[in-house]
Amino acid sequence: MQLNVNGADHSLDDLEPEMPLLWALRDVLGIKGPKYGCGIAQCGACTVHIDGEAVRSCQVAVGDVWGPVTTIEGLGTPDAPHPVQAAWIDAQVAQCGYCQSGQIMQAASLLAETPAPTDQEIDDAMSGNLCRCGTYPRIRAAIKAAAKSMSEGA
Amino acid sequence: MGRVKTIARRSFLIGSVAIAGGVAFGVWRYKTPYTNPLLADLPEGAAALTPYVRITSDAITLITPRADKGQGAVSVQAALIAEELDVSIDQIKTDFGPPSPAYYNTALAGDAVPFRATDDSWMAETVRDLADAPMKFLGMQITGGSTTVPDGYDKLRHAGAVARETLKATAARLHGVERSALSTETGAVILPDGTRLSYQSLASEAPQTEPVTDVTLRDPSEWRLLGKPMQRIDIVAKSTGTQGYGIDIDLPDMLHAAIRLNPGQGAALASYDASEAETMRGVQKIIEIPGGIAVIADNTWRAIRAAEAITCDWATAPYPAGMADHWQALSDSFTSDAQDSQFRDEGDVEAALAGGTDIEVEYRAPYLAHAPLEPLNATVRYTPERVDIWTGTQVPRFIETNVARITGLDRDRIHVHAEMIGGSFGHRLEDEVVRHATHIAMEMPGRPVKLTYSREEDMAHDFPRQIAMARGRGRVENGHVTAYDLGIAMPSVLSSQMGRQTIPAPGPDLQIVAGAWDQPFAITDYRVTGYRAPELAPISSWRSVGASSNGFFHDCLLDELIHAAGADPLEERLRLCNHAPSRAVLEAVGEMSNWGSTMAPGQGRGVAYCLSFGVPCAQVVEVSDTEDGIRLTRVYVAADVGRIIDPVNFDGLVKGGVIFGLGHAMNCQITYARGAAEQRNFDQYQGMRLYQCPEIELRGLETADKIRGIGEPPVPPAPAALANAIFAATGTRLREMPFDKHVTFA
Fold first, then answer.
1. Residue B662: is it exposed, middle or buried by C-beta count within 10 angstroms (0-12/13-18/19+)?
2. CB 3.0–4.6 Å: which of A46, B32, B158, B638 could bond A57 by disulfide?
3. What value does the mean pLDDT take over residues B25-50?
4. How far apart are CA A151 and CA A116, in angstroms?
5. Secondary structure of residue B502 in the 3-state scheme
């Protein structure tokens, strides 16, 4: 099995193809941004992009990955954050922060497809991502701010 | 305040200890200061300026001993020290520090005595001061009770000031000038000629300086950091996936473990069949641990999968198998024999109600899981000489005690490395995960083993919020509430929780009536009685503890009586309220919500109020009864913590607390069947989702005379405000949480 994660190729021939992508990323490749929260696609903490699409990596078998994988680490960095990450920093969204990698990956995918989402579109896209701390008001604000900054930057 | 307070104040000791070219200053209460724990590992030429400040040649490190579960404890503790130390946040590092009795929590004690938070009488203050002593002598380093700010507000600023003035004294001595001629800014002492001497350059000389103990804390008008919007220290890491949590620990040669525990909490493993699991890939060892079985494997997924493949036979849970018996046990506890407290008994309730009642109702609050998003985990490396533990915890000293007991090693050989925590809500006040991880690691001496709970195991062994029942009745006369009688029955959280630490919890448990007995209302005949139900399922402190259920009970009964009286819900609360900051928060939400203005048919507005952890908090919730069900449209919330240290974090914690309170009230419960929790994951335990989140408007007031924490107080009024709003919109009174048992939410 070949896996491209954040632009780097990895050979994972020794792995069980049914191992969830989440655990291949975390325990085999040491990429810890995607989080384990529920294991059944109910919380969204493990959200990554495959071919640009937001997916729950706990539900994708590593043998079924159909394209390059981007994790939060590949979206942007502390020195060069993606506009969504920059908006998250500006709005100080995170409390415990554990869900935020998934929230940001979900939001980045939303804005890539829908650059100026309505409130309803934000609700629809983000409601699969659980935040136990209750940062939802700031998530909404950060998505709107990111949409604005991305449209101005475009 | 009198003599007790004076003595306590005088005996604030400032000591200094010179060691290995460094210096330490202590800020400790009472005559015998604890050893500064930072001195143990201090490198040559470095200084540990108080247990909270460590300066080496290349870094200024502030010690933030209270756990950060997302509430921003690291940032607020650092800011309190930095304000007086005169360093900017971007030039310091932070460290949770080692567990130490020096970091005991003073403020927790003040809330454990039977005086209302609004009572500032001599007697109340004296007893609060006396209550510090056992906290100190037990070395209770605990994060909880919304105490990080009240506990650290003076202590941490004082530590910063002592360090600053002693660094100035060092510079004064070295350069032959008066200390008073020196100033400080951004990590440097400034000589009269403008020369900057960095704190790091002074560290190795500081031990030769007589410590400056006579410091005055700056007036808030001089603050650079506190009271102003701050950027959280962890915000960039938490927005870029680079924040490490306990679950992310990766050590050379590390193994991974998973567990299966008896879902009947506290009962044993009767028998098991691991024959399939033993053959599964990556499995290294399968062992019995107290109450269950553990799999040690080469990665998390293989360990969890193998653990799930084990067939287990469980012994019967030591509490009732089904919910009917749990409720019955509560129902049977409203007796004089089970009476735990009656700290509020004003007027003559019996006489007032002898002629009948206008309202007589029963309320229920279910067990609730903490369910933070980071599942429980702990990494332990055991050798016969030393144990290292990496985990997120609110009780590092309890962990030391328990791991010492399990391993038979002295506690100075137990090393707890505190990690950032992905949410807690009280979950990390329990240390069972560390005990299990220790048993597991002892099977693999020398190798670190990370135990990760599956979500299902985590939720099944959550030590949930208490189940509680309340019975209320009252009288109204001439349009006013005149008699109010509330009885609350629940098992003792304190006794269950402390019992697991083998710490006795004598006397009445204030949590049984917290958020009810202590409300600042003047009702002619007013009584709140606590009843101690027998131990049922093991329970633990859940964000706002007793008040999480009692805030709902107390305020909803008041609301029902007010409606029975035909009075306006806000006006009548204001009329009855006899505490100025509480009146102010009620008035604030009234103003923000334009209380009294007409709403469209099918819409409703409910107000609720609760004083908890010393903080008055009022909320107005607006709902709309739509075709899809009840939709929460707006929340207005006001709270008074005396002084807001960081308005950005305050805003986040209040709104998060409101959402936490509303979400659980809407759709969360833990129920037991055959002694096991029926809800094991977020498909059955949802909380609030983003699409359900109302707009929330907040006003923070700063009129109260004591500084308080804000982590918990926004939670208790939220369910009551929602229930009261649903009544206003639909005419349906909700007296049982979760509300989705009775109404549908859009």
1. buried
2. A46
3. 68
4. 8
5. coil
Decide if B427 contacts B464 (C-beta within 8 A): no
Taking an 8 Å cut-off on Cβ atoms, the answer to whether A132 and B373 are in contact is yes
What share of chain A in percent tops pLDDT 90? 96
Task: Return d(Cα B459, Cα B679) in angstroms, integer.
Answer: 7
- Residue B276 vs residues A20, B272, B307: alpha-carbon distances, Å: 21, 11, 10
pLDDT band, very low/low/confident/very high, at B71 (cuts 50, 70, 90): very high
Token pair in block for residue A73 = 């680490």
Q: Can you tell me the distance from the alpha carbon of B117 to that of B574, in angstroms, rounded to the nearest whole number?
A: 19
Burial B293-313 (b: 16+ CB within 10 A, else e): bbbbbebbbbbbbbbebbebe
Q: How far is B732 from chain A (nearest CA, A)?
A: 27
Q: Which of B529, B618, B299 is CA-nearest to residue A62? A: B299
Residue for token digits 């144990």? B387
Residues B458/B541, Cβ–Cβ less than 8 Å: no
What SS3 state is found at B222?
Answer: helix
| pTM: predicted TM-score of the whole model, two decimal places | 0.94
**Which residues sit opposite B526 in a β-bridge?**
B346, B484
Given this model, what pLDDT does residue B105 score? 84
CB B539 within 8 A of CB B465: yes
The answer to whether residue B643 scores a pLDDT higher than 80 is: yes
Return d(Cα B718, Cα B658) in angstroms, integer: 6
| Residue B319 · residue B537 · CB < 8 Å | yes
CB-based contact B38:B26 (threshold 8 Å)? no
Question: Hey, is B663 helix, strand or coil?
Answer: helix
Which are the contacts of B237, defined by CB distance < 8 A and separation ≥ 6?
A78, A97, B243
* pLDDT tens-digit map of B680-708: 999 999 999 999 999 999 999 999 999 99
Query: Is B435 within 8 Å of B403 (Cβ atoms)?
Result: yes
- How many CA atoms within 13 Å lie on the side-chain side of B80? 25
- How confident is the model at residue B647, as a pLDDT? 98
Q: Which of A76, A89, A101 sits opposite B235 (nearest CB)?
A: A89
Q: Do A20 and B250 touch (CB under 8 A)?
A: no
- Across the interface, do B70 and A97 touch by the CB < 8 Å criterion? yes
The predicted structure's pLDDT at residue B36 = 85
Q: Given this model, what pLDDT does residue B143 score?
A: 85
Kindly report, residue by residue over B407-454, the tens digit of the pLDDT.
Answer: 999 999 999 999 999 999 999 999 999 999 999 999 999 999 999 999
| Contact: B452, A36; criterion CB under 8 Å | yes
Residues A128, A134, A140: CA angle, nearest 5 degrees: 65
Pairwise CA distance, residues B432 & B483, whole Å? 45
CA closest to B452 among chain A residues: A36
Please tell me the distance in Å from A40's CA to the nearest CA on chain B.
8
Token readout for B31 is 């005559």
Q: Which helix (H) or strand (E) holds B358?
A: none
The phi, psi pair for B14, rounded to 5°, reads: -120, 110
Which residue's structure tokens are 């908006």? A87
Give per-residue pLDDT as tens, B193-221: 999 999 999 988 887 888 887 899 999 99
Q: Is B617 left (phi over 0), alpha (psi -120 to 50) or beta?
A: beta
- Residue in A78, A131, A137 nearest the CB of B240: A78
User: Whose structure tokens read 């002898």?
Assistant: B354
pLDDT at position B700 is 98
Q: How do residues A109-137 score in pLDDT, each as one tens digit? A: 999 999 999 999 999 999 999 999 999 99
Tell me the residue type at B530: G
Determine the pLDDT at residue B122.
76
Taking only Cα atoms into account, the Rg of chain A, rounded to an integer number of angstroms, comes to 15
Q: Which of B191, B105, B115 is nearest to B142 (CA)?
A: B105
B241-280 pLDDT, tens per residue?
Answer: 999 999 999 999 999 999 999 999 999 999 999 999 999 9
A contact test, residue of B247, B283, B373, B688 with most A CBs within 10 A: B373
Q: Amino acid identity, residue B6?
A: T
